[in-house]
Amino acid sequence: MSSSILKGLPVRRSMLWNIAGSVVPLVMGLFAIPVLVEQLGEARFGLLILSWTFVGYVNIFDFGIGRALTQVVAERLGKGRESELSGLIWLALLILLGLGFVVGILVFLFSGLIIDGLKVPFPLSVEAVSAFQLLGLGIPFVVCSSGLRGILEGYQRFDYVNKVRIPLGTLTFFGPLAVLPISTSLLTLTAILVIIRVFGMVAYVVLLTKAAPVLRQFRMAAISEILIIARIGGWITLSNTVAPLMVYFDRFIIGAYISIAAVSYYSIPFEIVTKFLVLPAAIASVFYPTFASTYQSSAPIALKYLERGLWAMLLLLFPTLLVFFSVVEWGLDLWLGQSFALEGAQVARWLTVGVFLNGIAGIPYAYIQGRGRAYLTAKFHLAEAPFYFIILVWGLANFGIVGAAIAWTARVAMDLALLLYATAKLFPISGALIKKIASVTLFAIVLFGILALILNILGSVSGLIAAAVISTLAAIALWPRAFSQIR
Questions:
Q1: Of 118, 173, 318, 365, which is least surrounded by CB within 10 A?
Q2: Model-level pTM?
Q3: Are 37 and 120 within 8 A, CB to CB?
């Protein structure tokens, strides 16, 4: 077995750590957000949300280096070449710090234009500009943390990653709550957010020196070494730029083709359903360094993890989403009222099928990028984009907002098909497995269709009973395939 697997955590424990790291902050947010909305008011809370979003997505300015470091570190460990990592990692971290400072300075200088573009109410505008300037000062720490986290994931120390991630996510919500009795100033709340991120970076540094003692010796690699990471990171950045465009562009098209009100009927089901992707993403990130470290040293081990990852994803997603599929209309009715349920239920059901397909795609996506072929996933996204936009316009014209959900689901189905095909080509001994997974996935889609007919003809109670029976049988069938032989 590869050295990186021996050094890292067992896959089951890594998956549990990643799931906890994704779920715990979400649960904390459910408790904190209502209080923050009440105490801050809608406008100030909206700006706080933008601050959170900005910090969350500023990782794109690491230009894919964080994820590339995961791949390179895991690959070198798999080949027993850990001694080469010190210089490469130190150089990459210095580059990340430099990129963070450049982006941070730009945000600081152009904060006024950002706030003007957001049409912030005048009484809050000066406060908002100062807050965003402060966010700019915190960007170097966020970008550098992305690289540190990527290195820890390359070492498969997901326990260390989530020992920082869980308190970081929790404090992001509860830090502002703690200072509310003292101040509701957006500048104060932003300062808390920046301080939390600084401490997060320090924690990553401390844990990294424990996970990788080789880094205690400061070395600098040749510039040619960093070109490896730059090449991988560039393709990852392209993929990370195109993919979100295909996720969020549909709202603007809906607003232009139908109405602004229709955007809400589409966006809220989309945000609810896609939350199910948090768990698949947490699991796929565990397999990414495993694939990077094993694909050359041991093809049978790589095949084993590819197989278990795909079956585990099917087990996680299919039973859960099938039940959600049957109760979503009732849930929307209870939460937002009958009119919203009538408009949003069909959207949510189509998106549920899409989330099922997109979740499964996470494993071949991780395998292809773990193989250092990030250019393939980027090219797939570029190829999918024009087809997606054509289907989106056609779907909206013929089916309204349900057409947008159909277009998104068709796009992720295309993505899954391309990823499975590429995996089979890159890893020929996986061909039989890929065919089996494709067949099971198609059968699952048929079952979603049958359940939709039951719901339309017999009603929600019969649909829920059918979903419960099918889900139980699926879980019993998938469990041995998903978790046997995974450490």
A1: 118
A2: 0.72
A3: no
